Amino acid sequence: MSVTSSTLRRGAAALALCGAALQAVAAPYVVGGASQAITSDSDSWAWDGSYLTGFRAALENPVYFGPAGVVNRSIQTTTLGAVNAGTLAGVNMFVGTWISDAQAAPMSAAVMNFFLGGGDLFLLQDDAAHDGLGTALGISTTQSTGSVSNGGAPLFDGPFGVATDVKQYYNIGQLDAAAIAARNGHVGGTNAEGQITSAYWKAGEYAPGAGALFIIADIDMISTTTACGLPVCGGSYSPLNANGIYALNTFSFLQSNGGTPPIPEPETYALMLAGLGLMGWMVRRRQR
How far apart are CA 209 and CA 205, in angstroms? Predict the structure, then answer.
């Protein structure tokens, strides 16, 4: 082996270390949703409503998402007081919670442009009166039987574990298989009767240049309430129950398959430049 070849191999190893460091400190994945002030019909199922407090806290928990977490990327959630091109430019993903069709209409065009331009989209649409954003994409909701849902990787079987018998509550929906297939989507989960309760698209699958898309036909598959007569109705995030595992597996998939890959923090560029500089110095040193 020549001296130069050996040097280049050492330099490549240094760059690999820099790449690992770059991944470790990638910029947070920013997830935004509309405030209750502009989605008042959503009640406590609004993005900043009490029923989603546990879910948002889990997304920002560094034990789950962060440099030393189950998923090696931090998530930051934010509440949008308006939904338009300007506010959406500051997020990687927009979450459409249980928004009434009437209150979805004013933001629909901006959300569609955001998604088709590469932004990621997560829709929670229980019924025909709260599926306006999905309907704009050709994916509407009808009522399901409400039986438990199951499926495979990546949503029911992922980094947070295996989710078995994920439950729907209150208003319960299903999605149309033909509509999903016509738009290059994938079935995420089905209930005991074979009705589709979730569907997903990787970035670029719905349309060239579009972001990732995930649609659940019941927000209560991830929200946390107690009105169903059980101690927890929906997702428990500490400890994780089946619905909680399912919800976090979903976000692991979305942040890694979305239209906005991890953006390095400024200090990681310095690490990469240092690695390149070290490699050049080693080559020059060996050539003397």
Answer: 8
What structural domains and CATH numbers belong to the chain?
A: 27-287 (3.40.50.880)
* AA letter at 33: G
The Cα 214–Cα 212 span in angstroms is: 7
User: Residue 271's pLDDT band (boundaries 50, 70, 90)?
Assistant: very low
CB 235 within 8 A of CB 222: yes
Q: Identify which of 74, 86, 80 has the alpha carbon closest to the alpha carbon of residue 114.
A: 86
CA distances from 226 to 18, 163, 186, 243 (A): 47, 20, 31, 14
pLDDT tens readout for residues 164-213? 999 999 999 999 999 999 999 999 999 999 999 999 999 999 999 999 99
C-alpha separations of 159 from 71, 97, 248 in Å: 7, 24, 9
pLDDT digits 0-9 by tens, 93-130 = 999 999 999 999 999 999 999 999 999 999 999 999 99
Question: Do 224 and 53 touch, CB atoms closer than 8 A?
Answer: yes
Residues 6+ apart with CB under 8 A from 99: 34, 39, 41, 42, 130, 132, 133
Q: Report pTM.
A: 0.82
